[in-house]
Design goal:
123 residues; mainly beta; four-stranded antiparallel sheet; 0% helix; globular
């Protein structure tokens, strides 16, 4: 079992920046992937960025170039830094994890989920 707790959300104006954190606890795996997903009201949950145990990363086109996903293995913490935030970035952001090496941004392929942290971007 893996427990995930997100933090760092908030309200910002367009053009601002935020850094999300996700702290993991539970059974460690050698091969894993972790990612950030978001869900806006009335919309499906979508992948934002992911990283696997070897450090390979993947980003959604909508955030590529203005977001960075990283992890601190010593702290069991995943980060997502988002810059140049837009109103369309508004949503609940979730951290997710799964015990496999192959990285994907498909939400249905992740077994463990946090409770989410809200980002609201005003224009």
């Amino acid at each position: 079992q893996v427990q995930l707790v997100e933090s760092g959300g908030g309200s910002v104006q367009a053009g601002g920046s935020l850094r999300l954190s996700c702290t993991a606890s539970g059974t460690a795996k050698n091969n894993y992937c972790v990612g950030w997903f978001r869900q806006a009201p009335g919309k499906a949950r979508e992948g934002v960025a992911g990283i696997n145990s070897d450090g390979y990363t993947s980003y959604a086109d909508s955030v590529k170039g203005r977001s960075t996903i990283s992890k601190d293995n010593a702290k069991n913490t995943l980060y997502l830094e988002m810059n140049s935030l837009k109103p369309e970035d508004t949503g609940m952001y979730y951290c997710a994890a799964d015990s496999r090496w192959m990285l994907t941004l498909g939400a249905g392929l992740y077994r463990y989920w946090g409770q989410g942290t809200q980002i609201t971007v005003s224009s």
